[in-house]
Design a protein that fits this description.
This protein has a single domain, classed as Growth Hormone, Chain: A (Up-down Bundle), CATH 1.20.1250. About 80% of the residues lie in helices and about 0% in strands. The protein has 17 helices and no strands. It starts with 11 loop residues before the first helix and ends with a helix.
Amino acid sequence: MSPRPTRASATRAQVLAVLAGASVMTSISMGMRQSFGLFMTPFTQDVGVSVADFTFALAVQNIVWGVTQPFIGAAADRFGCRAITVAGSLLFTLGLLVTMLASGPVSLLVGMGLLIGLAMSCVSLSLALAASARVVSPARRSMTMGLVSSAGSIGSFIAAPLAQGLIVNFDWKVGLAGFIGLCAAMIPASWFVGAADPKAPARPLPGAIDRDAGLSLRGALAEAANHRGYVVMAIAFFVCGLQLVFLTTHLPSYLAICGQSPELSATALATIGGFNAVGCYLLGWLGGRFPRQYLLGGVYILRSLFFVAYFMFPPNPVTTVIFSAAMGLLWLGTAPLVTGLIGHLFGLRYMAMLSGVAFFSHQLGSFVGAWGGGLLFDAMGTYDLAWKVGVAIGLSAGIAQLFMDIRPTPRMAAAAA
């Protein structure tokens, strides 16, 4: 059995280091990733690539992130987080450098697509939440994951105004250089995420039952594949990625088409980040007190209704800020709910890997939201069909999520009995 951290083996200093490192790392990586839409107009005009080329690179970023996340999660479950998160921070820096030097769609695809996509598997919420969940007690787990997600959301409140200010006053290359400066802070934070990585195999406390004894990676995957509730949750997670990445990628372009100022785009993304901090904490707190499947379903349905309310009418600064605040409250709060449900269903042993499998579905949705939105816009000259598709899928997923089976696996139920 591979080594893994336990609550009993983590000192208070290690707990604080893990939570602080996970929060800062996620804040910076997610903040930069959610602000890439601000670069679309200046990059396409300067380099001479199409909107579809730019959004395809973002779509590849999301699909690479999704495809590699289960493998990165399995590696973290087996070997610990530190080496993986530090390597991810360095990869993110390299991806930004390649994008800054891009001269066409191929180099853009390598930098913003492949390199940053792989880096996000290492430095995003999945590993941050898995590392955090392992160093706190079950009673505090949901709220702690909400706090880490909340702190992680502050990044867009910083990255979006930083990027927009540098783009307006200088150019998009200086904006990317500013992001490289943020990576300088992400690297030491990613080191602290692994502060509780064990040095020896974890042992259960005296008298306790080791629910994971003899459980292999293949066995954990089989458990997940045969659990209908997990399958429903993973499929519904698709709509989360579709709606969020559609907004971060295409909202700046949509506002520009509607005659709004570039500053409003940065304000919208920053507002999402600010309110997301509140929403993540609130949903994490609620997840410890109410059925998580109902909270998840409600998030997907409410997002879809806010889409309808906003996109049916021409945007203005007031409606855009209100819409951004509402979406921020419903933004990344899904992550602690999904991770908490996985821990409830299967335990902690393969949490990072199983979260990664579910996240692959999320990233398929991100791929469709980024590239599909660009294709529909290039073909029709409007985003009308794109947002309507997002609403229809969101309502369907939300209703399905409400009826998720949340019974733990027989292994978990037997250990509890």
